[in-house]
Design a protein that fits this description.
This protein is 56% helix and 7% strand. By secondary structure, it is an alpha+beta fold. It has 2 domains: 2-76, Glutaredoxin; 87-199, Glutathione S-transferase Yfyf (Class Pi), Chain A, domain 2, CATH 1.20.1050.10. Bound molecules: glutathione.
Length: 205
Amino acid sequence: MKLYDFPGAPNPRRVKIFAAEKDIVLELVNVNLAGREHKDPDFLQKSPSGKIPVLELDDGRCIAESIAISRYLESLVPEPNLFGRDAFETAQIEMQHRFIELELFAQVGISWVNGPIVAKMGLVDPIEAAKQRSDGLVKAYYQRLNTELAQRDYIAGDRFTIADISGVCCIDFASAMVGLKPADDLTALAAWLARVHERPGLQSV
Ligand SMILES: N[C@@H](CCC(=O)N[C@@H](CS)C(=O)NCC(=O)O)C(=O)O
């Protein structure tokens, strides 16, 4: 299976970590984002969304969206389980994961799109007020996550799941590329980041 990827991009990283946790080997194909290869008609045949990651199966069928790809991989290789084992745990993981995607990842995306790096690429006219607002929401989310992680080891409970994968990919990207590193006094958040970074699955990608 081929994964259309770009080094450092947070969404393909989610899939690479997910696959590594399950010892699934994917052939990585780098897409030239700067050259807009992901908007070429050939790539749009793979995903009309024109974004990465895309997983291409050996028979040529394609799946876009990090979480759709991850669910496909979970069906192929169920263990270790990353989406939940019973009705309640599955719902808890889904709930926490949706918080991360809708309340954190989306705001980091707004700060990124309206920030200096994207402005330099000349792709969009940045809206400074949108960036300021999202920066504030991201910082507030970090505080909330810190409070929650003082009570449990992982985002959705006592074990590592898809919610942690999305959380760490989002926060690492926000820290490295968006100027939104969590404040040093968020010690429970820092301890969780360290715990998650130690995992072989993260270190291998
Ligand atoms: N919801 C999508 C988001 C995909 C996405 O935004 N990918 C970024 C790279 S991390 C991308 O392709 N950006 C290029 C663009 O939007 O033109 C997912 O989870 O896969």
